[in-house]
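Researcher: Going back to the complex we discussed earlier. I've cleaned up the inputs and rechecked each line, so this should be the final set. Can you rerun the prediction on the complete assembly and write out the structure?
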Amino acid sequence: MKNVDYDLVIVGGGPAGLTAGLYAARARLNVILFEKIVPGGQVVTTDWVENYPGFPEGISGPDLVQKMTAQVQKFDLNIETNAVVSMDLSEPIKKITLSDRVITTHAIIIASGASPKKLGVPGEDTFYGKGVSACATCDGPFFKDSVVAAVGGGDTAVQESLFLTKFAKKVYLIHRRDQLRAEAILQERALANEKIEFLWDSVLTGIQGLTDVEKISVQNLKTGDTKDIAVAGCFIWVGILPNLEFLPELVELDQYGFIIVDANMQTSVAGVYAAGDVRSTPLRQIATAVGDAAIAAFSAEHYLENVKE
Amino acid sequence: MAEGVLEIEDSNFEAEVLQSEKPVLVDFWAPWCGPCRAIAPVVEELAGTFGDKIKFAKCNVDDNPVSPGKFGIKSIPTLILFDGGEIIDKVIGIVAKSKLEEMLNKV
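Model: Rerun complete. Updated structure for the full complex:
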C-alpha cells in the first residue's frame, strides 16, 4: 500500500468541521483539520444562539465555539491553522495543496462554510469598517444612540437588527419583499420592537459620506422612488456565498455554487464529503451543520474501511 | 523571550505607541466582541515571533474611547501598525495569521 499522509482531512473549523473532527478522532482515524483563520466560523460573529439544543438559557456564539473546541481537544484532534489552496481529486489518493506544502489523503470532508455576500452597491467597499459592517456583535456598540440601517429579511438580518436596538436609537430594516423570511419568533420580536422601522419592498442603492457613513439611498421597488436617509451605520445581511475557492471543477455544485451531496453527505467524487453551510441544503443552522458532519464522518469511516482492505 | 501584549490606555497611548522607538501593533478590542476574543491568541502568538522588533499592544475601546475615536475606528477587531507615530497599515476584522505576518514584515 502506498504511503498516504492521512486517512481523512477536514477543511474548515466551524461547527461542521469540529463535529466531523470529534467523530473522526473518536473513531481513531488518522485525521487532521485545517482552519484558515480561527475555529468557529460564522458562529464567532453570532451574538446569541437560542435554537441549539442543550442550552435552555441560550449561549453566546463565541462561548459555544469555545465549548466545541474544548470537546475536540479532549479527543486529541489535530487542528492546524493553514489555508487549503487547491485540491487534486482525480485519483483515489487525493492531493491537497496547503499554503506551505502538499499532503495526500484517502478521504476529505469539506466544511469550509460560507461568508456574507456583498450587495455590490456604491460605497459598500469604501466605507467598510467606517460604518458598513456585517457583524453587529463586533460593531453594534459603536452606534450607541445613533440611527443605523440594516439590509435583509432572513434570520441573520432580523436577529442582528434586534441586537442593534440595544445600542442604536433607531434601526431601519430594508427588505426587498413585503414580508420577512426569518423564523416566526424573530419576526414577532422585530415587528413589536419600537426602534425598528421597516422599509418594505425596498433596496439599498448607495452609501455616502465624507470619511464615514453619513447617509444611504433607498429605492422603493413598487413606486420607483428613491430617498436619502441619514444613518451612521449600515449593516448588510443579504445571504451567503460558499467558501470554495480551492475546489476543483470535478465536484458538482448547485446553481448557487453550493456542493451537492447525497444522503451520506458524499459529493460527486467518491471519498469526498461536504457538511454544513457549504453544501446545498434548505436550512443552514448550527444544528444542521453538526448533523451533516456526524453523517459525513461516519460515511468517511466506512469508505476508509473499504479502500484500505 | 516574548514580551507579550502590553495593555495600553488613552493616557499612555501617545507615549507607548506614537512616541515608541519600535514599530507598534495595536489591537483595538472589547470584551463583548466575539471575533476580538477569537483573534487575541493569534496576536499573542505573533508577539512571540515578532516581539523582538515590534511592540505588541492592545487597547480596550470600552475603557479608552479617545484613541479609537482619533483613528476613526468603528469596527473591531481593528489592528493598526504604527511606525514613528504614523499608520503603516491597518486590518479590520478577523483575518488569517499569514495576512498579519505579511503586514508585520513591512517594518
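Model: Worth noting: The mean pLDDT of chain B is 92.
Researcher: Good, that matches what I expected from the previous run.
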